[in-house]
Amino acid sequence: MATDIRGIGHSVKRKEDDRFIRGKGTYVDDVVLPNMLHMAILRSPMAHAKITSIDTSRAGALPGVVAVVTGDLMAQHNLAWMPTMSGDTQAVLATDKVRFQGQEVAAVVAESPYIAKDALELIDVEYEPLPPVVNPEQAAAPDAPVIRTDKEGVDSNHIYHWESGSKDDTDRAFAGADVVVQLDTFYPRSHPAPLETCGCLADVNPATGQTTIWMTSQAPHAIRTVFALVAGLPEENIRIISPDIGGGFGNKVPVYPGYVVATAASLLLGRPVKWIEDRSENLISTGFARDFYMHGEMALASDGTMKGLRVSLKADEGAFHADAQPSKFKVGLFHIVTGSYDLPAAHVSADGYYTNKAPGGVAFRCSFRVTEASYLIERLVQNAAYELGMDPADLRKKNFIPKDAFPYKSATGFEYDSGDYHAAMDLALEKVSYAELRTEQAKAREEGRLLGIGLASFTEIVGAGPHKDYDILGLKMNDGAELRIHPTGKAILKLSVQTQGQGHETTFAQIVAEELGIQPEDVKVMHGDTDNTPYGLGTYASRSTPVSGAATAMVARKVREKARKIAAHLLEVNEEDIEYEKGTFSVRGAPDKARTIQDVAFAAYTNFPDGTEAGLEGVHYYDPPNLTFPFGTYAVVVEVDPDTGEWKVDRMVAVDDCGVRINPMIVEGQIHGGLTEGYGIAAMEQITFDEDGNCIGSNFMEYLLPTAWETPRFELGETVTPSPHHPFGAKGVGESATVGSPAAYVNAVIDALWHLGVRNIDMPVTSAKVWEAIQAAKASAPSGGSGG
Ligand code: CDP
User: Fold this and answer.
1) Euclidean distance between CA atoms 466 and 482, whole angstroms
2) DSSP of 293-337, one letter per residue?
3) How far apart are CA 738 and CA 673, in angstroms?
4) How many angstroms separate the CA atoms of 219 and 211, rounded?
5) What are phi and psi of 433, to 5 degrees?
6) Which residue's C-alpha comes closest to atom 13 of ligand 1?
7) Beta-carbon count within 10 A of 181 CB
8) DSSP, res 155
9) Which protein residues touch ligand 1 with a CB less than 6 Å away?
10) How far is residue 246's CA from residue 232's CA, in Å, rounded to a whole number?
């Protein structure tokens, strides 16, 4: 009986899929309210321009248009600007000038979405073009036009300077090094591109002031607090409901102007207002990711021992600094850039710049900028191996933090809780048959074929975070879980985090099953409704399992302690004499005298001991003692066509360690998704801008996402190193594969081409770039280059 409980470690089928595959999910656009109006947003066609006039009279006269909203109208209500998640300000509707193409300029509220869209074309805006700034280098130029003229005392485009690690120690390490390897690389701007775009339905009741907003948000509680602060509304009167979400990937964390305008319109008009973005709006104006220009230097001894790491980077933050990084860390957790290596000294410096692009930097399937960090160190290590004439696997193994060195304090201040990097790499090498592949590669080269083997050993850092270091706008990054067991032994679990496809309704029910012995199908998981779930900062950066998953285990344990008291009462013994195993409380030494959790639940409402409160429920807010550190090694085998530059993935082996796996099937799905996204970024995804700041890639014809057709087949492996401080030894996994894999793909292409003299190709590694790199290498080293 006890062994049948499908708790942690079972590949329980996803409970939520039943409604999704039957088309019975409820997304924001499915919510329809009586008397509802529709809103559409007019966006700037220019990247940088002064607004000289806005004439809304023609739009306002179109039958069916109820209101045209401009920045001036918003300003009358003190809502022309709003705070961002990183403490900057952002224009809700532009008043003075536009600062990126796609910026919100005006909004039309109408009886139908089609009328609203048609009316946008009748708004006459006159712009006076200003010179655009489209990258950090231009932004930093002494004569660069200042983008944020709205900010008093600001006379440049520089937003922040941030450092981590010891500069002196690092300088000393470099002074004593035998070899210094350098890499300049660009991690391009990409977009999370969830299939469901952003949107909301705002309903302000003019009589009561009750404000209900259905919103595709990954962080409904934080958004409610921001709304209360922006609009000066009483927080208890604001209810944010995030219904089913069609993918978030970081895109649905920020507060977007559309939410504020729709809510203000509903307040002013006394009717519900719905705003749903179209695909191009989503791609050009909402939460981008990456856009880092990175310089890395590694100091090594001639035997390959790593001595120091020096990194500097420039971040393109767009026109408003809006990303949600923990307040203390301006470039997120990028300083995990020392990766899996025992680096005695490291120094990281970062500068953020305003540019005439949409605000970005979201945690796109990434824990706060760790993707960029992981990419840089893994590319650098691979190049260092070639420079030293060492095998890239050997160089990594020589420098991995050894298993017995944990907890390990990194040179940039993190305490890695656990790891066994050698085990993950050994398994990956074995699965991919590394030694045989190197022999095959040498043979292939003799035949003029370009076979490449790329490795990446990543260390992620997830589960933000302990309250002493982690907050967003002052809000501590702790999350809650509330558990209520009903008399019939069925349960409701309410979470502060929100599923967007990760399967929380299943995995979190499994945690309760593990702790209390109630089957997952008897545990209903609720989330995404600020009135009905405990407070927390939401789902992104793989924080759900490390933080809210831990809260769930802790609340279930609290409930179990009360259940033990009731069981003792039912069995007429002292509490100390009760033993518990998977849903059954029995008398020590007399296992036949037992009560199930269901018996106890019934008794909690019908037959509880005197002096005990009725009911069986609890709430827990979890403050993690540390972050968790998932890791893994990925190995990619590619073949490059020397004539066309086309590269094809022959093998992709991914070994992940996320500690104890709650649901192995869901974990594999997460890894498949992440590997696909990593491949997309390595091979094809980039949001480009021309020199005027026009966004090229405003649709899926130009912004390419990998489909099942081109996505490689993945071969997965796992090691299990439980996180020592997590209640059941789990670490997050949702983002790892996107963080770890791009470097493996690119390293594989470089591995195929290094002997020709190719040293770097920036992502996306298109066939055209590969072909050009081959031609350039041939031109500069006609004898064929060296190394590799
Ligand atoms: O925050 P997010 O849900 O995106 O990431 P996560 O905490 O890494 O979890 C992603 C999914 O994988 C969730 O459904 C988790 O419950 C599941 N998971 C698991 O089954 N075992 C782990 N050790 C980690 C995550």
Assistant:
1) 20
2) EEEEEEEE-TTS-EEEEEEEEEEE--SS------TT-TTTTGGGG
3) 8
4) 17
5) 60, 60
6) 502
7) 19
8) -
9) 502-504, 507, 539, 542-545, 658-663, 666-667, 670, 730-734
10) 31
Each residue of 172-196: pLDDT tens digit? Answer: 999 999 999 999 999 999 999 999 9
To the nearest 10°, the Cα dihedral for 758, 760, 764, 766?
-10
In one-letter notation, the amino acid at residue 181 is V
| Integer angstrom CA distances of residue 416 from 53, 169, 341, 404, 628 | 56, 21, 11, 12, 8
- DSSP states of 67-101: EEEEHHHHHHTT-SEEE-TTS-EEESS-SSEE-ST
- Name the β-bridge partners of 287: none
Torsion sign, CA atoms 296, 300, 306, 308: negative
Nearest residue by C-alpha to atom 16 in ligand 1: 507
Rounded Cα distance between 668 and 690, Å, is 39
The tokens describing 271, both together, are 């009717």
Query: Which tens digits make up the pLDDT trace of 236-256?
Result: 999 999 999 999 999 999 999
The residue whose CA is least distant from atom 22 of ligand 1 is: 661
> Where is average pLDDT lowest: 63-67, 378-382, 460-464, 538-542?
538-542
DSSP letter at 403 equals: G
Cis, bond preceding 407 (omega within 30 deg of 0):
yes
Site to substitute for ligand 1 among 539, 657, 733, most atoms within 8 A of C-beta = 733
> Looking at residue 226, what is its pLDDT?
84
Between the CA of 278 and the centroid of ligand 1 the distance, in Å, is 29
Q: Is the pLDDT of residue 663 over 70?
A: yes
Atom of ligand 1 nearest to the CA of 730: 23
Distances (CA, A) of 596 to 10, 227, 234, 539, 592: 21, 45, 45, 34, 12
Q: Which residues are CB-neighbours of 407 under 8 A, at least 6 positions away?
A: 415, 416, 417, 418
**What residues act catalytically?**
218, 365-366, 735
Distance 12 CA to ligand 1 centre (A): 14
What phi, psi does 490 have (nearest 5°)?
-95, 155
pLDDT at 2 over 50: no
Per DSSP, 145 falls in state P
Atom of ligand 1 nearest to the CA of 504: 14
Q: What's the rounded Cα separation, in Å, for the pair 533 and 241?
A: 10
Could you tell which of 367, 670, 716, 736 is best to mutate to test the pocket of ligand 1, judged by most ligand atoms within 8 Å of the CB? 670
- Which residue minimizes the CA distance to atom 9 of ligand 1? 734
Ligand 1 atom nearest to 732, measured from its CA: 8
| Index of the ligand 1 atom closest to the CA of residue 463 | 7
State how far Cα 696 lies from the chain centre: 24
The CA R_g of the chain, rounded to the nearest whole Å, is: 28
Q: Is 562 helix (H, G, I), strand (E, B) or coil?
A: helix
Q: How far apart (Å, rounded) are the C-alpha atoms in residues 688 and 695? A: 6
Peptide bond into 673 cis (omega under 30): no
CA-to-CA distance for 217 and 223, rounded, in angstroms? 8
Give the tens place of pLDDT for each residue, 285-298: 999 999 999 999 99
Structure-token match 């990456």, residue found:
290
